[in-house]
Specification:
Low-confidence stretches of chain A: 270-290
EC number (chains A, B): 3.4.15.6
CATH superfamily of chain A: Class I glutamine amidotransferase (GATase) domain
Organism (chains A, B): Allocoleopsis franciscana PCC 7113
Catalytic activity (chains A, B): [L-4-(L-arginin-2-N-yl)aspartate](n) + H2O = [L-4-(L-arginin-2-N-yl)aspartate](n-1) + L-4-(L-arginin-2-N-yl)aspartate
Pfam families (chains A, B): Peptidase_S51
Helix content of chain A: 10-25%
CATH class of chain A: Alpha Beta
Largest sheet of chain A: 9 strands, mixed
Number of domains of chain A: 1
Shape of chain A: globular
Radius of gyration of chain A: 19 Å
Oligomer: homodimer
Strand content of chain A: 25-35%
Structural class of chain A: alpha/beta
CATH architecture of chain A: 3-Layer(aba) Sandwich
Keywords (chains A, B): Hydrolase, Protease, Serine protease
CATH topology of chain A: Rossmann fold
């Protein structure tokens, strides 16, 4: 897994985040972006309803006290070289990608001036957030589409290059709600990466450098295929069933943390790294998450 | 895990098995029950439509060449002590439980003469099959009902004693199709067992003593919590989110085998028992399943 040592901060949301109540996740995005002094850009490139969706988020961020909120709607690739848009990104402290179609994000933005600027500013401390399609596009290879509620097969998932804000992992969203473990396993098994993150609705992973913290109502499902003991991946045809043995799985709800470099949940006394085989769940020494 | 050393043969189906085409799974049940010389009893206790459902299975088994097929419909507990029913079970080579409501199976049959006779005959070589509710009731503790498409929480799954034909595990059905990994994780974490089996639709596990073989269209998802490194199970309230770290997961499609005693997939040269950490799926030495 390639994880560069940047100052990156990402807020990656599994879709359907609370926009009416406490807004726990969007509040976290605003706080990290500078609170009431944040300068936020809402990127509506993924959605077919840029005005409605953009103004929704603008209202929410304003309700949370942010005065400087701008909508940037890049429709064509040439829009992504527009100087006013580039200036907005250059001054922003937080950039938020709405839901919609992740393939639209990459087809309009990848390898444009705006793309290069986002990566430069991310390394300098810009917070990038995204929900649903805006979450899917975060890795270097993203799930474009795929079947839900099926066992893993090769053909059920289609991958394309993503925006590479969080390289080295695969991300899926609306995870428990749409029964997507089969497609995430299929994606991770087929990519040269070890980690898959399935993010539930109204749940986010907040990335700070190489550390992840879970925020929100549901959980994240971490799939680690680094230690698998068997797969039939090289032998089966496209429509046949995938076998995978020895996948490591973690379920991490609100407040739990995970280290991308060591691929381990983080606990204050590192109990997670000890090897307590054959111990019953009920008999384990329990440790408070940090 | 308690696994007795019997001659048990079970065919445990995740629901919605093919009844029109090749009937791969029902064919396997018939073959193990003695083929065209089988004497099959169809137990309709779980369903509210015993006549329709019973006659459906009777027609299928007859189409596969079995001449001796009987329907036993126990409605009340006293029916389970009826001598004609007991004689039918005593002579049967295969007993098949239809779908419906698993709580009806246990409330009518548990600790009756018929229950005792089924266990005695199972140890003597009787094949017991079941689909959907007829699969859920197989363990000593069964999932009665639960929420699908959610992250694991304590309250989402309700458990009751099952028929204990396959003690020491938890079974869930319609698994991928209904997004049930959250509820199966919740069930396994709360029970004093280490193994959960999620069986997809039109897919079965065929149990012979302590060995399992997968048959059918989908896959089974094996969840092994014996080596978990952390859980918050003892600390959270009923409606809070469960954390589970270090669950081992196997996806096993048609033809794959699993050993209940060692909790390992079975390969001819036992590659599954070696510890090849940090190897990529794509770079693994691949082994044909037996």
């Amino acid at each position: 897994m390639v994880v560069s040592d940047t100052n990156r901060q990402l807020v990656i949301i599994g879709g359907a985040e609370d926009k009416q109540g406490d807004c726990t996740i969007l509040r976290e995005f605003v706080r990290r972006s500078g609170g009431i002094n944040a300068r936020i850009v809402v990127m509506t490139v993924a959605t077919e309803l840029p005005r409605e969706v953009g103004e929704d988020y603008m209202r929410i961020f304003e309700r949370l006290g942010v005065e400087d909120v701008r909508i940037v709607d890049t429709v064509e690739r040439e829009d992504a070289n527009t100087s006013t848009y580039l200036e907005a990104i250059d001054k922003a402290t937080g950039v938020f990608f709405t839901g919609g179609n992740q393939a639209r994000i990459t087809s309009v933005l990848r390898e444009t001036e705006l793309d290069r600027l986002l990566h430069k500013r991310l390394a300098e401390g810009l917070v990038i957030g995204g929900t649903s399609a805006g979450a899917a596009m975060m890795p270097d290879m993203m799930i474009v589409e795929g079947d839900s509620e099926t066992n893993p097969r090769i053909e059920i998932v289609e991958m394309e290059p993503g925006m590479a804000f969080l390289p080295g992992v695969v991300i899926d969203q609306h995870f428990a709600q749409r029964g997507r473990i089969g497609r995430l396993l299929s994606a991770v098994a087929q990519q040269p990466v070890n980690l898959g993150f399935g993010i539930d609705e109204n749940t986010a992973i907040v990335v700070t450098n190489n550390q992840i913290e879970v925020v929100g109502e549901g959980a994240i499902t971490v799939l680690d295929v680094s230690g698998i003991t068997h797969t039939n991946l090289g032998q089966i045809l496209k429509d046949e069933d995938l076998a995978l043995c020895g996948v490591k799985l973690h379920i991490l709800p609100h407040g739990y943390r995970f280290d991308l470099a060591s691929r381990q949940p983080i606990f204050e006394n590192n109990v997670s790294t000890t090897n307590q085989t054959d111990a019953q769940a009920q008999d384990m020494p329990l440790v408070e998450s940090a």
